[in-house]
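Hi R.,

Here are the chain sequences for the assembly we discussed:
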Amino acid sequence: MEIFFIGILLFVLSGVFSLFCRENIKLKMITVLSFFASIFAIIPAFKTLLLGLPEGLICNWNGVFGEVPFVIDILSAFFIIIISFVSFLGVLYSNGYMKPYEGKSKKFASHCFFLPMLTASMLLVTVVQNALFFLVVWELMSLSSFFLVIFEDDKKEVLSAGIKYLIYMHISVVFIIALMALMSVKAGSYDFETFKTIFIEKPYLKDIIFFLAFLGFGTKAGFVPMHNWLPDAHPVAPSHVSAIMSAVMIKTGLYGILRVLLIIDKPTALIAFFMLCVSVLTALYGIVYAVTQKDIKKILAYSSVENIGIAGIGIGVGMIGMFYNNSVVTLLGFSGAIFHILNHSIFKSLLFMGAGSVYLKTHTKNIEKLGGLIKSMPKTAVFFLIACLSICALPPFNGFIGEFLIYLGLFGSLKMDTSGLFILIILSAAGLALVGTLALLCFTKIFSITFLGLPRHECSQKVDADVSKTMLIPMGCLALLTLLIGISAPIVFVPVSCSVADFVGVQYFYTDFVAILSVLVKLFLCFGLFILIFVIVYVVRMLICRKSIVYNTWGCGYDKGNNHIQYTASSYIGPFSSIMTPLFKKIFDVKKPKGLFPKDAHYNSSIEDVEEAYLINPIVKFDEKFLSKFERLQDGNIQHYILYGLIFLILALVGVVFLG
Amino acid sequence: MIILLILLNLILILFFPFIMLGIIKKTKAFWGGRKGVVLLQPLYDFVRLLKKQPVVSSTTSFVFKLAPVIALATSITAGLFVPTVMGFSIINIDFAFIVFAYILGLGKFFAVISAMDTGSSFEGMGASREACFTSLIEPAFFIIMASIGAVAGFYTFQSLNVFLYNADILGLCIIILAVVALMIMLLTETSRVPVDDPATHLELTMIHEVMILDNSGCDLAFLSWASAIKMVLISSIIANLVIPYNLPFGISIALYIVLLMFIAFLIGTIESAIARFRMSHVFEFVFAMSAVALVILSLITIRIYGG
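And here is the predicted structure of the full complex:
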């Protein structure tokens, strides 16, 4: 445990040191220190995961927090590993990505300071078991990520997206405070351990606690309808920050929900079904919007919403298993969710890094202007392709395993007999299948429009070389991992399932574990067979025709085809968006040509989030209208302000005297 | 015996596609009042294509060359999971239909991006339509397989046969509906009339055929073989739903082959009888499968839990 704190300390120190060194070595220093810090943080986590023994340390801060227990249990050990690993790769990647900004941006120093602080605070969130201190590190995490998001704050959209993110986080933290306060008051202590006792007498509290946790942590994770900050914040943040945020930071929201579930223990039917339904909706909503967007990072942000939904389906299945006391379903659901969290943290950070490399070379995030980059950036293209295959859950890559476990859990819970549950489960499975196929539509679009065909615009035409090695190495590592985890799924399943053993209960764990492992081993053999067949077909293909003639693309008799004749992203999803029209708010920006010699004309269509257009914006508008009535109170006169303070104090005093 | 069955399965999966294609051609010729080509003409075409040197567009990358290989490899691998004669499949694992669907998904992913790789507007059109139509098929397939598995109590493909074995009138209705739904899937996935017309040569109206405009030589051979294998696979699923599993070997194999031939004949008849749908009607056709799947789901719920 002490080693873990050395790691945290190193992260913090690297942030502080970076304030005092020259700009060109700032990131290098952070990278080196982060490397050691990550190793220090991972060692105790691995120990806990392998031995299954929680490790703890109690700090005594009398007066403020009371006793603060820091515990690495098997659930947090898992999160520590992915957080340290992905954050380190993100920092390594930033060395190449931030090069053009060095010495040019005033924000560079603050960026370098908050980058390791974000990692440190995320790591602390996973180990703190004291309600009050948890809120402090949670807030630290939100704030440091906020400062990382607003790196380019001279642009208007960056600042507004950053502030939106800040507001969302602070509305969500209200629910978390309420949650922690409720549990602390009932239990009479800030310690998470003692919270478990409050449900013995008052089981109805479970629902309230869970819904508070869902609203609070769910906003961080990005469950619909609280997802709206993601598609705004991710595109404006620097790519390695989006990678870290999307790959691991939003997972701390899921960690919070899982932690609350551990405290609640056996969930009620209401919250179990609620979790399943809302997750299916989240996944569908996320992917439908991911399909329709044009901004490469916005697509990835919506796809993060989708993947949080998929992991949420796993959690929901696990909760249903707990409710019906079915240990196999519990294990399948939770381990599927955890497996998907692991997978998503790998391929999503890879996708964001790939998108960042494209942005660095072409200076655009609009995929309609891209194309043909596979010729100029072959390595990035291959890594991006692997990540796309994996996120579509196609075998033999890792994404498939997590979804497969969740399917297994869903179909396993069919044996529990009520007709309502039966229909719900089968429709959820169909929903997951639909999410999978729409992901295929979405990621064939993003890959083929960005990397294939001919360049659609000048900016993608003049790309001359692939990005530097410091950016390619992290991407290569992640790409290799997606394939390795997919193929060696039975091995990876061991630590993954161990990390959710607490949900299942030790007495059942072993037999269920062996049963699932045998399915995965069979799957492993099938993958082996597939790869064998692939190699055979490939060799046969190479033997049959060694040479080929190179010629123009067949233009159906028209031989003057150029890059403008190609399909664009919008036309690619045309059939889909035509049937989904009722779900979208389409915005057209049209200027028709006028007169005999028309000068300028343009046509632009985009799709806005209906949740934002019809739910959030009216609320914000109403708020503005309502609050503007109080504008007169703020008249700039300091005496008045002191008067307000005095009135408040008197009211507080009266309140205390009469009510307290 | 098992080795014999494995060999038989492999032969059926790899070579029966040509016969099915031949029968479709013969049927169309029959309804058109022509004599038609010989039954094995698709096989001769395949061999002829293998011998030709492929022409590759200068716009394309390695994706274009890799796609036919992956399409064929995924079709063959998916075939290992599907039961043919006597409900026997080479690989028999739980939840095989999930692996089956996702492996075919890998092939589709590459087929789509290889079409986009050429930078041709026609192929983009085909890719876009193919990705959109087939994405609506899979949920319905999952509903059908999962609910049939729930009745049988287990989720291997064998549950299809077991289902028929103890079917009452309600069960027979479910089987008929499932056959209808799977026929829609068959026509959509293998791009036959009324979804797509493989015989037309007007690029604007095609789906699958337009995606492979630029492929030639062995690449084209591989792609069409992969597509034809898919036809046999889905037909086999239909056949296993209808043929009881406890018949003697000889009768079983005869029934299976007759049924597959009948399906090919049916496809040919449909192609002769009706024209392909307008693009906007294709969606309605594809959604019909989902509707049928939902009816199956409600019938099965009634069957399991009573009215």
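The first helix of chain B runs from residue 2 to 31. The radius of gyration of chain B is 19 Å.

Let me know if anything looks off.

Best,
T.
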